[in-house]
Each structure stands twice: as structure tokens, then as C-alpha cells.
Q: What sequence folds into this?
């Protein structure tokens, strides 16, 4: 169910960003109208053949000295090994093989992950064929010649990337244990929450077999049900560079959310809701996963009978695109409302998988359009013929209309609200696809 993650790793200037941009095409994964989300292209959604996956660019920084470069590449390789299903190691034909390439290849080879070796800047396949063979020496298998600038060899490379997805996909299908990502900025209490859950009597812990060296997924049994908790706090990069830390924190968040069914977004009650919270919330929202907003450290603030209400209002204002997310006020330290958190997770899981019959959907549509006329433009009025739910996780609806251009997002929002009035879909975004039927 979860989308595979492909990470791009390599020295500065080998062409990682160029390759990333070719793969991302126009489909930048960051939704424009989600406030708080930067336009920095760290990750992007890609489709190839019948596969959808997320590509992350682990690069970003431009270190200067050779030592710095190696350190940076090691961190990149680590983060790729931690998060990715397939790693694409990019080297540069023009610069040839350098010492740092061998060192990174050593790290990647030891990881238990598929690694593809892309030799970039092969702008002429015939002319440079022999030069590409040199890269065999890295011990990472057949080098794949590509030219990101001329968009050559990209398809062949992607064929090899998606080949590795099948191995994992089979395991995934059997596995139906719900996955919960605990997300949030540093120090909100992510580790404390996981530790509290593990420490509770009713919870039985077992380490998951077969995970890579940094085991961050934890199986938890609660009230006779099993859950896998994905802890984004487990990995703390030691980098002192702010941009680098920020980049890794975003990559960790994106990849954890991608693997999860429900994300629990933790907010620090003492600090209130900040821009960084909104940024992380935005990522969860646009990935279509279930979301719960958990205000933590509720034990640590002075409260009166308005505190909770005011906090709720503040969240609604700052995360106005996520009004569907239920809110809960917890303490990872005292364990306050842990029970309710699990009940909420159950509810959101059910809502993510809720299917609504076509008959009743069209009744709602009929009533909605009668109450409020669809928009019109230059004398032409939008007509919505039919609505049907096509998928779950997130619940996705197709609207058949006379003219897509006439569909205004505010009217989609209106229909969304009408559907929510009846079915709630609490805790899950719902998606709409508009199709023309002449
Ligand atoms: P990054 O630092 O690894 O992200 O590298 P960039 O994507 O910024 O590219 C570094 C330089 O290599 C830029 O000047 C690109 O235009 C150039 N470049 C990237 N891909 C190719 C390619 O396939 N062929 C050639 N000749 N140049 C390329
Ligand atoms: P993480 O970086 O998100 O994993 O945050 P930690 O779990 O490491 O917590 C950061 C700090 O907040 C630690 O000093 C915790 O003791 C403290 N903390 C976490 N949860 C609570 C809570 O519910 N109440 C209070 N008062 N402190 C908390």
C-alpha cells in the first residue's frame, strides 16, 4: 500500500538535482495551496509504468573541502539507507572515478538495500560506452549510463528501479498491521510518547525481525490489536549545519508518513503551535494519510476552563486546511489520555478505509447542487452528472462534469463539506478527481 521511496545519493555536481528534476517533471509533490510548506524540492512523486513512488534528493548542500564532501556524502548515504527502498548512486563520467566514490560505494554495498549505479553525463552513448565500464570498479554491479541534461537512458534506469519494488511489494500485501507515524519537530516528546506506550502494562513489545541496523519500527499490542509505530525521533543526525538538519528532518518525516496509515502530529503545549509545526502538518496533509493532532506536555501548562478551547481555535486557524483532523491533549510523561489516543487511531483507520455507496453519494450531490448552484463562467454553468467513490486510503471520489474548467475549488470544498456532514471522515483527507463526460 505504501509508496516505495527512491533516494538519490552522490557527490556535489555529479548532476543529482538535474536527475531529480527530470524525474519530478512538472509534478512537484508539494501542494501549492498548503500554507507553511516550502517549495524546496526535496521530494517528488514519480510514476513509471504502473508504479508510483517518491524520489528524495539527499543532496542540497555544497560542501567545499574534500573532507567536508566525504562527511556530507556519508550522512547522505546513511539517510538513504535508513529511509529508501532503492538507492540510486550517481557518479560523473566527465570527472571519472574519485576516491570519495569508492568510500561511499563501500558504505552502500554493506547496506542491505538495492543500489543502482547511474553514470551521469553520458551525453553520447556510443562515444562513451567504453568509459562507462570503468565504473564497474565500484563493485555495485552494471553501471547504467544516463544523461540527465539530455534525458537519455532515464527510462532504462527507471525500469531497473521499479524491478526492485516487486520484491518488497509481496511482503507488504501480507502485512496488514496498521502503521502509525509519530511526527513533529524536535523535543515535542515523540520518543517520550513511544517509550510511554512501550512502558504501559497492557502493551507487549516485540522487536521486528529483519529490519536494518537502525530498527525504528516497533510492534505494539494494545487492547488485543497490533500496531507498528514508526518513530521519526529514533534517528538523530549529528550534523551541526542547520540546513542539513532541516533537510533530514523533512526527509525523515516524508518517508515515515509515506509508510504510515495514520500520522500523529505532536505539538508542544508549552510553546504553542509554530511555523515548523505547520510545515510538518502540511506534509502529512498532502500525502493523503490519516492525521491526529496531539498536543503534548498538557501536564506542564497552567490551565483554566478556556485553555483547551483556545488551543483548539489556534490550531484551526493555523492549520485551517486540516480541520478534519481530530485533536487530543495528552501527556507523554504522565500517560494522560493514552487510551483515548488509541481509540482515536482506531477511528481514523476506519475512516481512511470507509466506502460510501454510489446511491447515497448521488443523493447528497443532488441535494447539495439544489441548495447551492454550481458556479458558471461566461454564460456556461458547471453541471455535475454523477459522483462515485473510486478508492480508499485516502477516500477518493470522482466527479463527472460537463466542463472541468468550470469546477472551482471552493465548490469542490462545498461538496466535500456536504459529504463530511453525513459521513464525517474524521481524521482523513478526502480527494476529488474531476472528469469530463460530454
Ligand atoms: P548536483 O550537485 O549533484 O545536484 O548536480 P547538478 O544537478 O546541480 O549538476 C551539476 C552540473 O552538471 C550542472 O552544471 C549541470 O548542468 C551539469 N549536468 C547535469 N547533468 C548533466 C548531463 O547529463 N550532462 C552534462 N554534460 N552535464 C550535466
Ligand atoms: P522528541 O525529540 O520529540 O523525541 O522529544 P523527547 O521525547 O526527547 O522529549 C523532549 C523533552 O520534553 C524531554 O525533556 C521530555 O522529558 C520532555 N517531555 C516529553 N513529553 C512530555 C510531557 O508530556 N510533559 C512534560 N512536562 N515534558 C515532556
A:
Amino acid at each position: 500500500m505504501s509508496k516505495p521511496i527512491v533516494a538519490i545519493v552522490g557527490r556535489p555536481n555529479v548532476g543529482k538535482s538535474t536527475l531529480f528534476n527530470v524525474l519530478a517533471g512538472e509534478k512537484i509533490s508539494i501542494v501549492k495551496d498548503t500554507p507553511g510548506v516550502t517549495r524546496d524540492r526535496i521530494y517528488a512523486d514519480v510514476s513509471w509504468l504502473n508504479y508510483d513512488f517518491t524520489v528524495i534528493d539527499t543532496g542540497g548542500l555544497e560542501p567545499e573541502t574534500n573532507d567536508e564532501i566525504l562527511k556530507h556524502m556519508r550522512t547522505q548515504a546513511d539517510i538513504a539507507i535508513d529511509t529508501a527502498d532503492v538507492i540510486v548512486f550517481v557518479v560523473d563520467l566527465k570527472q571519472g572515478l574519485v576516491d570519495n566514490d569508492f568510500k561511499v560505494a563501500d558504505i552502500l554495498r554493506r547496506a542491505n538495500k538495492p543500489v543502482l549505479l547511474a553514470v551521469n553525463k553520458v551525453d553520447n552513448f556510443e562515444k562513451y560506452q567504453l568509459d562507462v565500464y570503468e565504473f564497474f570498479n565500484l563493485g555495485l554491479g552494471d553501471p547504467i549510463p544516463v544523461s540527465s541534461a539530455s534525458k537519455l537512458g532515464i527510462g532504462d534506469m527507471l525500469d531497473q528501479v521499479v524491478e526492485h519494488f516487486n520484491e518488497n511489494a509481496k511482503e507488504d500485501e501480507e502485512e496488514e498491521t496498521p502503521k502509525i507515524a509519530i511526527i513533529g519537530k524536535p523535543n515535542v516528546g515523540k520518543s517520550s510518547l513511544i517509550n510511554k506506550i512501550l512502558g504501559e502494562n497492557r502493551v507487549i513489545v516485540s522487536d521486528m525481525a529483519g529490519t536494518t541496523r537502525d530498527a525504528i519500527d516497533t510492534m505494539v499490542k494494545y487492547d488485543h490489536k497490533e500496531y507498528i509505530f514508526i518513530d521519526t525521533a529514533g534517528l538523530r543526525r549529528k550534523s551541526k549545519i542547520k540546513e542539513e538538519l532541516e533537510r533530514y528532518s523533512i526527509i525523515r518525516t516524508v518517508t515515515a508518513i509515506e509508510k504510515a496509515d495514520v500520522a500523529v502530529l505532536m505539538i508542544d503545549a508549552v510553546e504553542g503551535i509554530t511555523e515548523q509545526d505547520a510545515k510538518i502538518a502540511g506534509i502529512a496533509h498532502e500525502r493523503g494519510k490519516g492525521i491526529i493532532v496531539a498536543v503534548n506536555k498538557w501536564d506542564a501548562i497552567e490551565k483554566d476552563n478556556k485553555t483547551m478551547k483556545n488551543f483548539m481555535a489556534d490550531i484551526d486557524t493555523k492549520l485551517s486546511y486540516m480541520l478534519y483532523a481530530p485533536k487530543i491533549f495528552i501527556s507523554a510523561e504522565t500517560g494522560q489520555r493514552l487510551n483515548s489516543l488509541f481509540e482515536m487511531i482506531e477511528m481514523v483507520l476506519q475512516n481512511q478505509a470507509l466506502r460510501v455507496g454510489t446511491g447515497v453519494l448521488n443523493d447528497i450531490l443532488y441535494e447539495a447542487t439544489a441548495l447551492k448552484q454550481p458556479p458558471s463562467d461566461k454564460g456556461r454553468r458547471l453541471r455535475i452528472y454523477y459522483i462515485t467513490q473510486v478508492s480508499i486510503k485516502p477516500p477518493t471520489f470522482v466527479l463527472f462534469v460537463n466542463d472541468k474548467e468550470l469546477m472551482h475549488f471552493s465548490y469542490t470544498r462545498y461538496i466535500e463539506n456536504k459529504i463530511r456532514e453525513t459521513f464525517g471522515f474524521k481524521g482523513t483527507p478526502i480527494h476529488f478527481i474531476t472528469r469530463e463526460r460530454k
Observations:
- The domain at 5-169 is CATH 3.40.50.300 (Rossmann fold).
- The chain has three domains: 5-169, 179-353, 358-436.
- Residues 27-39, 201-215 have pLDDT under 50 and may be disordered.
- Residues 184, 186-192, 233, 296-297, 299-300, 331-333 surround guanosine-5'-diphosphate (ligand 2) (CB under 6 Å).
